[in-house]
Design a protein that fits this description.
The protein is 8% helix and 42% strand. The protein contains 1 helix and 11 strands. It has one helix at 144-157; strands at 36-39, 42-50, 55-62, 66-72, 77-88, 94-96, 100-103, 108-113, 119-126, 128-132, 138-143. Strands 1, 2, 3, 4, 5, 6, 7, 8, 9, 10 and 11 form an 11-stranded antiparallel β-sheet that branches. The chain is globular and about 55 Å long. It binds fe (iii) ion (FE). The site of fe (iii) ion has 5 residues, from loops.
Length: 170
């Protein structure tokens, strides 16, 4: 938490409480280095990397169209589209700015950004993403610890320091 935020209620809260998270500039950080590259034309802007409950909340930004990933969810996902649009190959709806979605445990889908489109979406992911091929075979996974590692490496590379990732960890 930034030093300039005063805890005026500090005498009322339990001493073991974790620090809150507050990102005034969540969507449009002044420093572009907060967008962690996760592939060509794809970024993740971490908001909360919750290692004690195994979930993460972030903005995903995609500027290069194509198949982003096919994956299975062992745990629920909540999403909110902020800008642009995208869709799942397996669905007949489009996610557009203002759309909310809930992805139930067990859901398998293929996220596509069509030619000429881009998007920014807030996702709350629990557990892991299980990447899979067309037959549903698992080809890779990504959990909150992988997210921490990727962000840590990026922050170190761009000069913010490896420990910068701790700002997002709870
Ligand atoms: Fe999904």
């Amino acid at each position: 938490m930034p030093d300039n935020i005063e805890r005026i209620y500090s005498s009322l809260v339990p001493e073991d409480m974790k620090d809150e998270l507050y990102w005034k500039d969540g969507l449009n950080p002044e420093d572009d280095r907060l967008w962690v590259p996760i592939g060509p034309g794809r970024w993740s802007r971490p908001l909360c990397l919750n290692v004690s409950q195994g979930y993460w909340v972030h903005f995903i930004k995609v500027t290069e169209p194509g198949i982003i990933s096919r994956h299975r969810h062992p745990a629920p996902v909540h999403g909110f589209v902020v800008e642009g649009k995208w869709r799942y190959l397996e669905r007949n709806w489009e996610a557009t700015a203002g759309s909310y979605l809930y992805e139930p445990p067990g859901d398998v889908h293929t996220l596509v950004v069509d030619e000429g489109d881009s998007m920014i979406t807030l996702f709350h992911n629990t557990g892991a993403l299980l990447y899979c091929d067309e037959d549903g075979e698992i080809t890779g996974t990504s959990d909150v610890f992988d997210r921490v590692k990727t962000a840590r490496n990026h922050f170190e590379e761009v000069g913010l320091g490896a420990d910068f990732v701790k700002n997002f960890i709870r």
